[in-house]
């Protein structure tokens, strides 16, 4: 019986994060919603940001972004018109110079997926 059960176990590969930013699906900054473009401008100028959590460390617990050391990624809220809270849209940027990030990523589904922002 154990052999039958063991034979029926199907191995499902774990979802792997891209190893580099260049392996990610991309999105042009100009095609993002106006609110996301405004958030990206605020990131590059150092704020001020509308939410207290903006600029906080993003832990990448979902492992959707390339692996980096803790503190590499920071998250920023993209304002959603009509929402009564922070909603699901974010920009997460990686790098150690906050106003000149090495790469930024957009999510509109609260970290379930990301697209690397290109200019």
Characterise the protein shown here.
The chain has 119 residues and is an alpha+beta fold. It has one domain (19-118): Roll (Nuclear Transport Factor 2, Chain: A). It is 16% helix and 20% strand. It is built from two helices and six strands. Strands 1-6-5-4-3-2 form a six-stranded mixed β-sheet, covered by helices on one side. β4 and β5 (103-107) form a beta hairpin. The longest helix is centred in the N-terminal third of the chain and has 12 residues, at 34-45. The radius of gyration is 17 Å and the shape is globular. The termini are far apart. The model is unreliable at 4-14 (pLDDT under 50).
What layout of secondary structure does this protein have?
Elements: H1 2-8, E1 26-28, H2 34-45, E2 56-57, E3 73-77, E4 90-94, E5 103-107, E6 115-118
Parallel strand pairs: 1-6
Antiparallel strand pairs: 2-3, 3-4, 4-5, 5-6
């Amino acid at each position: 019986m154990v052999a039958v059960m063991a034979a029926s176990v199907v191995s499902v590969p774990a979802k792997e994060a891209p190893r580099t930013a260049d392996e990610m699906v991309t999105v042009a900054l100009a095609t993002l919603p106006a609110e996301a473009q405004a958030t990206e401008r605020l990131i590059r100028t150092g704020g001020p940001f509308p939410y207290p959590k903006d600029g906080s460390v993003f832990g990448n617990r979902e492992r959707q972004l390339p692996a980096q050391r803790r503190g590499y990624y920071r998250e920023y809220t993209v304002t959603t018109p009509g929402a009564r809270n922070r909603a699901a849209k974010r920009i997460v940027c990686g790098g150690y110079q906050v106003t000149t990030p090495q790469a930024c990523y957009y999510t509109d589904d609260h970290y379930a997926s990301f697209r690397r922002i290109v200019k």
